[in-house]
Amino acid sequence: MARQALYRAYRPRRFQDVVGQDAVVAVLRESIRRQQLTHAYLLTGPRGTGKTSLARILAMAATCDAPDDGEPCGHCASCQAARAGSHLDIIEIDGASNRGIDDVRDLREKVLYAPAVGRRKIYIVDEIHMMTEPAFNAFLKTLEEPPAHVVFIFATTAPQKLPITVLSRCQRFEVRRLPVPLIQRHLQWMVEQEGGTAETAALLRIAEASDGGMRDAQSLLDQVMAGGAVTDARVTEVLGGLDDARLTGLIRALLAGDVPTLLAAAHDAYQAGADALQLLREVAMRLQDVWIGQALGAGASDLAQTRTRQVHDVIPTGADWFSAIERLAEAEGRLRGSFPAQLVVELALVRAAGALREEGRAAEASAPAASAQERVRAAPGPAEAPALRPTVSARPAADRPPQVAADLAGERPEVGRFRRALDRLRKSRPMTAALLVDATVDRRGDGLHVQVPNLFSRHVLTQDVATGHFASMVAAVQEEWGEPIAVVVDGGAAADPPAEVHELGAATAGDARDAAVRRTRAVLGDQVVVSVAPADGRVAATAGPAGTDGPPTDDGREIGREIGREIGREIGREIEGGTSDGL
Description:
Blueprint: H1 6-9, H2 22-34, E1 40-44, H3 51-63, H4 77-84, E2 90-94, H5 101-110, E3 121-126, H6 133-144, E4 150-156, H7 164-167, E5 171-174, H8 180-193, H9 200-209, H10 214-225, H11 232-239, H12 244-256, H13 259-271, H14 276-296, H15 302-311, H16 321-334, H17 341-365, E6 376-377, H18 413-428, H19 430-435, E7 440-444, E8 447-451, H20 455-463, H21 469-481, E9 486-490, H22 509-524, E10 528-532, E11 539-543, H23 556-577
Parallel strand pairs: 1-4, 1-5, 2-3, 3-4, 8-9
Antiparallel strand pairs: 6-9, 7-8, 10-11
Helix pairs in contact: 2-3, 3-4, 5-6, 8-9, 9-10, 9-11, 12-13, 12-17, 13-17, 14-15, 14-16, 14-17, 16-17, 18-21, 20-23, 22-23
């Protein structure tokens, strides 16, 4: 005979055996004690938290001949039949397999029959959210006014999929995830019952990996015990992560910003067969414990305090914990693609290390806020956004605060936010995004400085308000920041042109033409040929092989002015109008 799985062998048989659901158990026991059962119960919650076990215990107690203080006695013929799964009046239905209207019609006919042996007939419907909408509609009347001898007990992991008409007809109980220490203690008890031994660190790793589900923890423990003793090394091998010592070393390198050691630890873990996703999750959970331990001190859990003490000497001052964990969460999404998993993990760890230290570095490098004449405050009202006038910084490069360069350990938070704002602009305003291709940003005080090194782009972005480029950029930035923020457009340290260069940044006709070609191809693609006609200065885009940029003209200043007007108005309108056969 096959060995019975641990989660089946140790399934709760009485209410007092249910772990971690005291509030639900108290109400159900009191209902049995007072013999005041309602006609429909709904148990909701994550997988493996005890919904089906509670339903079976409730059904057993409801049909028991002599309940003992709200508990099934376990000795009568009814309890014995219920425990064996052969009770004629306890019917379990799989909602995923019996989900159609014909199944509901069959159920409606059967509920009319009296109980076979007891005084009640219990229907347990698991995963009821899988039923179809017509089936729910056909079931409503029976659910609202069932025969007096019938009790429905529903269980589901997705209550949001149930019609409100069903929810309103049931007593709903939330079965919640179990805390890690509680799962760990229960696993220790199970190991002792099995006559085995287990390392504390191993049980802790299993409890953390179960995501609050006792059944997942029991299944993982069963798998580890099948290979012998329950050790941390064995659990690490099963999970595909790092053992506690190596994980602690990796976290220390991450907090210290020691990139070479961090990369070496990640590389060794990957070569040893660690699962990329599990590694990211373990690092994120460990960072969360350290974050909580540092923030709450003695008020944190014992586990968080212990893990904080292990790395307290390398925790950076003013660490940006949220940004660091966010970098790891973003990497989890990339693992679903075809990008190399090892590179995704290493890049995420390095960026997280940089994010942890960005807050303090940004504070040291921040300069005094720009004056009122050098920034724009965009604060839309409830009805409409006020008119926005761009301001271009006229200060020389030597007077501007230095750009804080992103190092190997990651990028500044405002850089990532501005990049996400540009991603939105590429979909809604491609011309505006093209003007900001080479832009860099710097957060100074309460304002965001956008440095546009190309003078042509800066001119089109700021001087012609009618095109809406600047307003669109400010709107995208505000949406990403989630609050009104001052926006200043600077020229950048390398953007100041010689005095003899005209206002569009082109000293010759060839320079003006090249600027127009680059900007237009940034929007329309490299397969487009752009030519400038000297007669009226209009820009034409035709399909064909790239490489022919059109003949130069003689008057560079005039062409520059025409390009500034036409690229800012004509090309923007044509692109947003959706034309595809030329301008």
